[in-house]
Design brief:
Blueprint: E1 2-5, H1 6-14, H2 25-38, E2 43-47, E3 64-68, H3 75-85, E4 93-95, H4 99-107, E5 111-113, H5 115-127, H6 136-140, H7 144-153
Parallel strand pairs: 1-2, 1-4, 2-3, 4-5
Helix pairs in contact: 1-5, 2-5, 3-4
């Protein structure tokens, strides 16, 4: 289980080379979700504030649940409470470069990863090409004979 300081990771992403597309909070959440799904993990991203009025873009992101801290508190406080309440902290990974959260994670013997390091891991993993066990015909197309058979079957003149 990963608990991710969303805005801290967003700042780390902005400070690193990422290509032509700007990183928005929604795009960040989708990338993290893809990464966590790829490594067969799940997580929560905690963002400051109440978020946009319409939160539908944050719904149903595979691998990750997106939470907003709300009014009167901040993401760091929410994450600290989650670390303290976790019943299996040794299985928990906290993603933040914030010293307060890293100290809270260490205090519970949870794993702690700096946002910059997590972002680099994410890009490395998502950059790998997954080799699918696809049949050769799907990768290389039909042979000329197979194409002729299908054209005959559908009554298409050549």
């Amino acid at each position: 289980m990963h608990i991710i300081d969303g805005h801290n990771l967003l700042w780390a992403a902005h400070g690193m080379p990422q290509g032509p597309e700007a990183i928005t909070d929604v795009r960040l959440c989708r990338l993290v979700g893809r990464y966590l799904k790829r490594i067969r993990e799940v997580g929560e991203i905690v963002l400051d504030g109440t978020g946009p009025r319409d939160k539908t873009e944050f719904d149903n992101i595979d691998g990750v649940e997106v939470l907003f801290a709300g009014i009167g508190t901040d993401a760091d406080s929410v994450i600290e409470r989650k670390i303290a309440a976790n019943t299996a902290p040794r299985l928990l990974t906290v993603v933040s470069s914030d010293n307060r959260l890293r100290k809270a994670a260490r205090g519970r013997k949870a794993n702690s990863v700096k946002s910059e390091d997590f972002w680099a891991q994410l890009h490395k993993e998502l950059g790998k090409n997954k080799v699918a066990n696809e049949p050769g015909s799907k990768l290389h197309g039909l042979s000329e004979g197979e194409t002729d058979q299908w054209l005959d079957f559908f009554g298409i003149e050549q």
